[in-house]
Amino acid sequence: MRHDAVFLAYDVRCGSADEAVKVEAMVRRLGGRDAILQHEVTGGGKSVEISHRVGDYFQEILVLPPNGEDHGALRVVFHRSPEAGRFWKDLMVRIVRAIEEAFPRATVTLVHKGDERLDWSRLGPVRSEPN
Amino acid sequence: VLLVLLSHGTDVDSAIRIRDHGLDAAEAAKLNATGEFWASADAATADWFAFSNPAGGPPVRLDFDVPEQVLTLLVNQIPPLALFHAPSDYEFSPASYDMLNQAMTCKQVVPVQ
């Protein structure tokens, strides 16, 4: 059986500082422990709405504010719960894709996956693209 | 025949194995207990699954075509052999693999950057 990483960190480089603020707000809204993500599942001739509470899959989803003077970038860290059900990765990808679709000028990069909690602010430079 | 392009995000070894030998229920069960195979009509979604693959190998997408009527048949079976997760993802049960292996065409391993 393969072992999925406990921590996955993404850097989000935004087109502007204003956009970074909006991305941060979106991630905090979608990734709060009590946030509910819903989607429709179809099979066997019927469709049902499935709800997932983020806190049932993740111990936390950290949103680190812009690094230093760089106000156009932020870091999002997904901390998977040990007992997370199989849908955890789908929820994570849905949040990442929501950022990409809502903010086409933003670029998202996976910068870390592993089992150790790191000093996320020192993981590497977070730099936004020049406007 | 209307074809649907689906993408499966994974590591390069797994993708090549599926491309060359097809889906194998016993093999899939070794990787996750219930052995489902996921694919998305949204290539960007598959890319993110590739990046987070637990095997640690180079991330790739396995892109392939499936006739829409086969997808419809698998999803509408009772019990279903596949589930459609809106807006773009399919979850194929091991019981669907024989039919899916016959239906998959134009299989390509695409590196994800």
Strand content of chain B: 25-35%
Structural class of chain A: alpha+beta
**Fraction of residues in H or I helices of chain A:** 10-25%
- Specify the number of helices of chain A: 2
How many E-type strands of chain A? 6
Secondary-structure element sequence of chain B? Answer: EHHEHEHEEHE
- Classification by helices and strands of chain B: alpha+beta
- Mean pLDDT of chain B, nearest integer? 93
Largest interface: A-B, 23 and 27 residues
Instruction: Give the N-to-C terminal Cα separation of chain A.
Output: 45 Å
How would you describe the overall organization of this protein?
The complex is a heterodimer of chains A (131) and B (113). Chain A is of the alpha+beta class and 131 residues long. Chain A is built from two helices and six strands, in the order βαββββαβ. In chain A, the strands form two sheets. A four-stranded antiparallel β-sheet of chain A has the order 4-5-1-6, with helices on one face. In chain A, strands 2-3 form a two-stranded antiparallel sheet. Chain B contains five helices and six strands. In chain B, 39% of the residues are buried. Chain B has helices at 12-21, 25-31, 43-51, 68-76, 97-103, and strands spanning 3-11, 37-40, 59-67, 82-85, 89-92, 105-111. In chain B, a hairpin with a 3-residue loop joins strand 4 and strand 5. The radius of gyration of chain B is 13 Å and the shape is globular. The termini of chain B are far apart. Classes of the chains: A alpha+beta (131), B alpha+beta (113). The A-B interface holds A 1-5, 8, 39-45, 86, 89-90, 92-93, 96-97, 100, 110, 113 and B 30-34, 42, 44-45, 48-49, 51-52, 54-55, 75-80, 82-87, 89. Strand 2 (36-43) of chain A pairs antiparallel with strand 4 of chain B.
